[in-house]
Write a structure and sequence with these properties.
Elements (H helix, E strand, L loop, with lengths): L3 H59 L4 H9 L3 E7 L2 E8 L14 E9 L2 E11 L11 E3 L3 E10 L3 E3 L3 E4 L2 E3 L2 E3 L3 E3 L6 E2 L12 H7 L1 E2 L8 E3 L2 E2 L14 E5 L5 E9 L1 E5 L3 E11 L8 E3 L2 E6 L4 E2 H4 L21 E2 L6 E4 L3 E3 L4 E4 L2 E4 L3 E9 L18 E3 L5 E4 L1
Parallel strand pairs: 5-7, 5-27, 6-8, 6-9, 6-28, 7-10, 8-11, 10-12, 13-16, 14-17, 15-17, 16-18, 17-19, 18-20, 19-21, 20-24, 21-25, 24-27, 25-28, 26-28
Antiparallel strand pairs: 1-2, 2-3, 3-4, 4-29, 4-30, 22-23
Length: 410
Amino acid sequence: MRSPRRRGTVFLVVLSVVALVVVLILASMAVITARRAAAEARVSAVIARAAAESALELALADAANSFAWRTSVKSGAPFAASDSFPAASFSVTAADPVDGDVTTSLDDPVTLTGAGLSGSARQMASVVLELDTTAVSGLGCALAAGGDITLSSATVRSLGTIASNASVTATSSSVLAPVIAVGSISGSTYGVSRTPLSPAVQIPAQPWADYTTIGSALSYSLAGGQLRNVVIGPGRNPYGTTNAQGVYVVNAGGGNLLIRDARILGTLVVINAGTVEVRGSVVMDPAVTGWPVLIVQGSVYFTTVGNDLSESAAGANFNPVAVPYRGDSDIDTFDNFASTLNGIVYASGNITSDAATRCTIRGALLTAGKASLAGELNLRYCINTAAAPPGFRAGGGFKIRPGSWARAVQ
């Protein structure tokens, strides 16, 4: 018979073996659990990184260097953190690395940061967008029309190109400029070159959008539907508050607006217009170099006479202290100013001129509609297409800063 002592020893050995096996099993389970957690963490990190980068791609597709877009991203991210991605959520935020406010200037870069969250993993990616001032192709022309260009008893002089995305017809006219058209070019007389069947040029659809965001109202009713014998500029708005950049927005409410015997230093934006008539002697210059002088959501009708803008004839001082003319101001009414539109003129409707018109535009004339011209039109084309103003830029106005893509873990 075995002694109780021997039986106890066997029991302890068996118990030790069982305990060792349990420890080994638990250790193995811990290793497996740790490896699984590590694998899941790696998978979560990959998913989070993909979510962050995909969020940036979505934001880039929507990005436009406009005040409207900048205002929208200032008030909230383009995509909220609740937006979904398979097994992840993401968000995008925008920041201005120059002054901290993305809405102060279209010239400032914007840093987009995408964050992806999957499980406990949070990955971030960022990219810097900077100003792309490359112009739409239509701004490379002295005159560009989305529709037909019809010249009747007209004299058009320009070193810049005249372009139509339809056809060009000249009757009893003298066209001293290169002419291109998507369709045909017919009639007489063309003194330079004709190139039918040319590619279409790009003409902005709504360039006023950027300017209505930053502009100040110029009351259509207070002006009585006309800007006549007045001077308007950054320091002067007889029909509303002033604007430091000289951007004034007139809501015509479907009516017509007359600009006659007036001087405007700034960018005049007329929305909801029937026809804006530019009559008599008019001097327009942008307050911000390179910006448009006239943007019309509607049609433009030129009946200018080409004579100097005369203070004595109008009974008005056109270069007061608040709105000097090229640095010169006074308090008398004895000065004369050359009647010229110095900048970009745009119409979403049609552009028309009559037989008595004498008009000089030192810049570019663009219309999304047709151009029906008579009289004398001098187009002194001088546009820097590498530095186009807001509303006239190709590609959304942004470009990715080379080397700015970056990843981060938070």
